[in-house]
Design goal:
The chain is α/β, with parallel strands linked by helices and 396 residues long. It folds into two domains: 134 residues, P-loop containing nucleotide triphosphate hydrolases (Rossmann fold), CATH 3.40.50.300; 249 residues, no CATH class. It is built from 15 helices and 13 strands. The strands form two sheets. Strands 7-6-8-9-10-11-13-12 form an eight-stranded mixed sheet. Strands 2-3-4-1-5 form a five-stranded parallel sheet, with helices on both faces. Helix 3 runs parallel beside helix 4 and helix 10 crosses helix 11. The radius of gyration is 22 Å and the shape is globular.
């Protein structure tokens, strides 16, 4: 498989190299965590003052290190006092009581520690418990549109973006030539994620239920959703299920980085609302593997793409709530807000006015924009920026 340099992630690994915390690379299964680690090793190898201790638990030659004492002793044996000692461990969860070994190594302040792990077994919610605040998390997402173009060496945004809508950012699917095989690959990743990871970690027996819930969520990306709504829907299909169980399963799906929950923000009242949320897939192409392609609903897919890109760029995102309307995203970074509407086609005057109306009702001075598939240069209407989605995704 072709490898590309994922600059933003690699730059972050380099930037935090001097920090004493354990660097934990998290993210969805098959999103490129291991490849990123290899890119970082290649960078480190250029400096002869670096001593690189690399352990890949996918490789059977390291099977004898799958116990915390054996792992710690091996790393200690590779220490060179005259060099910078980098320890990079892939699939760390395969070592029994790995957290004990890492905490011990960290306490000695001799090593710079980097680890990756299976998403369900090394989640953000687990890190504080495992390492008591000694970690710095770097979350890896599937390929962005810019990375998609880089992979295929494409210069023009169209028709590249139209293809990206169909293929998504799971780069493992790119080696397959036809769309059916690409979707089969995504189905296999999904089954592994659900069946092997989530069901094992949480000891879930009802695998059919969690598949139904995830399919419902994929079909309802960008819709306001709650555990009670889902339980009511399943009940109409003769599946009796408590909404608290549904809520727990929703959390498991988010913990695994398959879905991201986006809460609601009252723009006028400047407060966060606790009832109902929206959910977005970590990669929009999973929707095709879960519910098929017959009801593609491009508008929802574009909204999903924008949501994940905003998260990738480090924004907090919320659904903006107004009295009689809704803003797709209130994106906040460094205390600065941006109000965003996402649409497929705004060539129709009525559609454009519908998207403009809620933005025009917000009277503060923060940026307001409509991201749509305009295939034209950026322009403004009454201070609101109208930008083509491919151009926006390809920008910095």
């Amino acid at each position: 498989m072709k490898l590309i340099k994922r600059d933003s992630y690699l730059d972050k690994l380099i930037e935090v190299a001097e920090a004493v915390d354990i660097k934990v690379i998290t993210g969805l299964r098959r999103s490129g965590k291991s490849k990123l680690l290899l890119s970082f090793i290649k960078y480190l190898s250029k400096n002869k003052k670096n001593n690189i201790i690399h352990i890949d638990f996918n490789n059977s030659k390291f099977d004898n290190l799958k116990e915390n004492h054996a792992l710690e002793n091996f790393i200690e044996s590779k220490y060179i006092g005259t060099k910078h000692n980098y320890v990079l461990i892939d699939e760390i969860q395969n070592c029994e009581h790995f957290e004990t070994a890492l905490n011990s190594l960290h306490s000695k302040e001799k090593f710079r520690l980097y680890v990756t792990g299976s998403n369900a077994f090394l989640m953000s919610s687990d890190l504080a418990t495992l390492f008591t605040g000694r970690t710095f998390e770097i979350e890896v997402f599937p390929f962005s549109f810019k990375e998609y173009k880089k992979y295929y060496d494409i210069k023009q945004n169209y028709p590249a973006f139209d293809n990206f809508i169909k293929e998504g950012g799971m780069s493992g699917s790119y080696i397959y030539k036809n769309q059916t095989d690409k979707i089969t690959y995504l189905k296999n990743v999904y089954r592994t994620l659900i069946i092997r990871d989530i069901t094992q970690k949480y000891k879930i027996r009802n695998k059919e239920l969690i598949n139904k819930i995830s399919s419902f969520m994929a079909d309802n990306i960008s819709n306001i959703t709650s555990s009670r709504n889902i339980s009511n829907f399943l009940s109409t299909n003769k599946d009796k299920i408590n909404h608290k169980t549904v809520g727990a399963y929703l959390q498991y799906l988010c913990n695994s980085f398959l879905f991201y929950k986006v809460g609601r923000y009252d723009i006028k009242g400047k407060q966060y609302l606790s009832t109902s949320d929206k959910y977005y897939l970590s990669d929009h192409a999973f929707r095709y593997s879960l519910i098929g392609t017959k009801d593609a609903n491009t508008g929802r897919i574009l909204e999903n793409i924008v949501a994940i890109e905003l998260l990738r760029r480090g924004y907090e995102i919320y659904v903006g709530v107004l009295r009689e309307s809704e803003i797709d995203f209130v994106a906040i970074r460094n205390g600065i807000k941006t109000y965003i509407q996402v649409a497929d086609d705004i060539a129709n005057k009525n559609t454009l006015e519908r998207e403009l109306k809620p933005l025009l009702s917000i009277k503060d001075g923060f940026q307001k924009m409509i991201i749509a598939r305009t295939r034209s240069e950026t322009y403004q209407i009454e201070g609101i920026t109208i930008i083509d989605i491919a151009n926006w995704l390809d920008s910095d």
